[in-house]
Every structure is written in C-alpha cells, then in structure tokens.
Amino acid sequence: MTETVADCLFCRIVAGQIPATVVAETEHSLAFRDIDGQAPTHVLVVPRRHVPDAVSLATASARELADVVTLAARVAAEEGLEGYRLVANTGAAAQQSVFHAHLHVLGGRELTWPPG
C-alpha cells in the first residue's frame, strides 16, 4: 500500500519529483543520501508509504517497518560500515523536521555517546 502526501518532501522524493542520490530500494522502502550529512555515511531510509514517524509505521505495518530496518542494515553493509547508528527522531522536540517516518544510517567515523 502506498499512501502519499502532496507537500511531503520524502513522498516527493519517493515519487521521483525531487532528485535524490538513491543508494538502495525495495518494494516498500527507499534509501538515499542525506543532503546535510552528519557523518561520512549518512543515508536516510524511508518507507514508500507516508506515515509521520516510526511508531506510526510499526502500528500501520510491522512488515514495512522491518523492511526499513532491513534495508538500513543492507545499506550499512554495502557502505562497508563496521559499526553504525540507526536513529529515528520522533516529534519536533527530538528534532524531527520531516514528518514522514525515516531512519538515519550514520557511520564511517567513531560515534560518541551520549549523542547530544
């Protein structure tokens, strides 16, 4: 099932209306490079379906959430990352700026803790 929102940046990227550097995809998910990368590898993995955050995606379809996470792992492997971080910001207070579920795949350097 593909639900989109006309003014959603990630829906427009999924639809091919806005260019992105796509690194991998599946039937349910798309992975592309973040234009403002915070690590040497910074890839966003989004479901093709529009839902506002990861919890909403899990509620809508555990299978599609699993697909996003599995694609993120595939991207990390293809990028040769020995370790990586998956981040899902949820809500404006957590700095989510695009309200379409997505995971950040971050790696390629030592990642400190706490993240900030």
TrEMBL record:
Provide an example Pfam family for this protein. Answer: HIT
Report which residue ranges the record marks as coiled coil.
Answer: none
Q: Which domain of life is it from?
A: Bacteria
Which sites are catalytic? 102 (tele-amp-histidine intermediate)
GO molecular function annotation: catalytic activity
* Gene3D superfamilies in alphabetical order: HIT-like (3.30.428.10)
Segments carrying motif Histidine triad motif = 100-104
List each copy of the HIT domain by range. Answer: 9-116
Q: What SUPFAM superfamilies does this protein's entry cite?
A: HIT-like (SSF54197)
Q: What is the name attached to this protein's record?
A: Histidine triad (HIT) family protein
State the species of origin.
Answer: Phycicoccus duodecadis
